[in-house]
Design brief:
Order of helices and strands: EEEEEEEEEEE
Number of strands: 11
CATH superfamily of one domain: Rieske [2Fe-2S] iron-sulphur domain
CATH architecture of one domain: 3-layer Sandwich
Strand order of the largest sheet: 1-11-10-4-3-2
Helix content: under 10%
CATH class of one domain: Mainly Beta
CATH topology of one domain: Rieske Iron-sulfur Protein
Radius of gyration: 13 Å
Structural class: mainly beta
Largest sheet: 6 strands, antiparallel
Bound molecules: FE2/S2 (inorganic) cluster
Distance between the termini: 25 Å
């Protein structure tokens, strides 16, 4: 079954390696440029999560914020976003894009949809 939040053509996009397992400490994120977008990738100690790096408030890098219990806190003004769906914890109508991320051997790979 197709996820209604995922455009059909998203499945034809390739996964792009961005780093190696062990590069991102648990509870932290790192920012990578993929296909012209900045993508924040977080590690919770067991699995990886990926979302748009740009905070919709004033543009801080979410990848440099702490990641706790599936939520990243923006380092500038502490807005919090859920990694599962990109929703702002204070108002779910505001969301940042989230992306598929996987481990392939030691590689961390993300599948990033084009901006816009
Ligand atoms: S820039 Fe992220 S909360 Fe203000």
């Amino acid at each position: 079954m197709t996820d209604p939040a995922t455009p059909d053509d998203a499945f034809s996009l390739p996964f792009t390696p961005v780093g190696r397992h062990g590069d991102i400490p648990a509870g932290e994120g790192r920012t990578f440029e993929v296909g012209g977008r900045l993508v924040a990738v977080f590690f919770d100690g067991e699995s990886y999560h990926a979302m748009d790096d740009l905070c919709p408030h004033m543009g801080a890098s979410l990848g440099s914020g702490p990641f706790v219990d599936g939520v990243v806190t923006c380092p500038w003004h502490a807005w919090r976003f859920r990694a599962c769906d990109g929703a702002w914890c204070d108002n779910e109508k505001l969301k940042v894009a989230v992306f598929e991320v996987r481990r392939s051997g030691d590689a961390i790979e993300v599948r990033v949809t084009p901006a816009g």
